[in-house]
Design goal:
single chain; 20% helix; N-terminal domain of MutM-like DNA repair proteins; 3-stranded antiparallel β-sheet; 4-stranded antiparallel β-sheet; 4 helices; 2 domains; alpha+beta; Helicase, Ruva Protein, domain 3; 222 residues; binds zinc ion
């Protein structure tokens, strides 16, 4: 192994053979280091040069694991066509304005589209839209330049806060050291249907958009 990195929600393990392991933890997959025993859903077990053993456990089977040539990684089906990383320098108002231009899709769906911005989760989109006062059902082409200028830093700020708080969304999510992630982050709207909006005190609403819950304040978000 020569290094670890990440692209969107894929973990990348670069090897000295010139290829890279691409893995996705799915809904609740996890990697265990030097497991004391093999568990039922340990689908892949591998040993690295140092002698450490890693078990990839994925009870719900939404995860994936594959290998690709390191110098052709961007061509792998999982990674091809991905938009910029939200915390990277390429995720700019100019980029988002181009991605929204003329689009008749809701802004919520566009922000969840991996080709627009890679690896942005439902929670962070709900939160960033509330921060900027943009209704999740507004069409991409109707989002103003000023709102886009506010949306990009809001996405970055929401992500940075979540990372600082432990980054966990599932109670059984484990960090790489095996410790459970925190689950004490108080979101502005996410998961708070019927609760008071922190800005205007009106109840937070929930609506399902393309199979995902959108939490928003109909007063603050237009
Ligand atoms: Zn409100």
């Amino acid at each position: 192994m020569t290094g670890l990195s990440r692209r969107a929600k894929y973990g990348l393990v670069h090897t000295d053979r010139g290829d890279t392991m691409i893995f996705h933890l799915g809904m609740s997959g996890r990697m265990r280091l030097d497991p004391s025993e093999i568990e039922k859903h340990d689908h892949v077990i591998f040993e690295v040069d140092s002698g450490k053993v890693v078990a990839f456990n994925d009870a719900r089977r939404f995860g994936s694991l594959d290998f690709a040539d390191t110098d052709r990684l961007d061509l792998h089906p999982a990674l091809a066509g991905l938009g910029p990383e939200p915390l990277g320098d390429a995720f700019t108002p100019e980029h988002l304005a181009r991605a929204f231009d003329g689009r008749a899709a809701p802004v919520k769906a566009l922000l969840l589209d991996q080709r627009v911005v890679a690896g942005l989760g439902n929670i962070y989109v709900c939160e960033a839209l509330h921060v900027t006062g943009v209704h999740p059902e507004r069409l991409g082409r109707d989002v103003t330049r000023g709102e886009i200028e506010a949306l990009v830093p809001a996405v970055k700020a929401v992500l940075e806060q979540a990372i600082a708080a432990g980054g966990s969304t599932l109670r059984d999510h484990a960090q790489v050291d095996g410790e459970l992630g925190y689950f004490q982050k108080e979101w502005r709207v996410y998961g708070r249907e019927g609760g008071a909006c922190a800005v205007c005190a009106k109840p937070v609403e929930r609506r399902v958009q393309s199979g995902r819950s959108s939490f928003f304040c109909a007063t603050c978000q237009r």
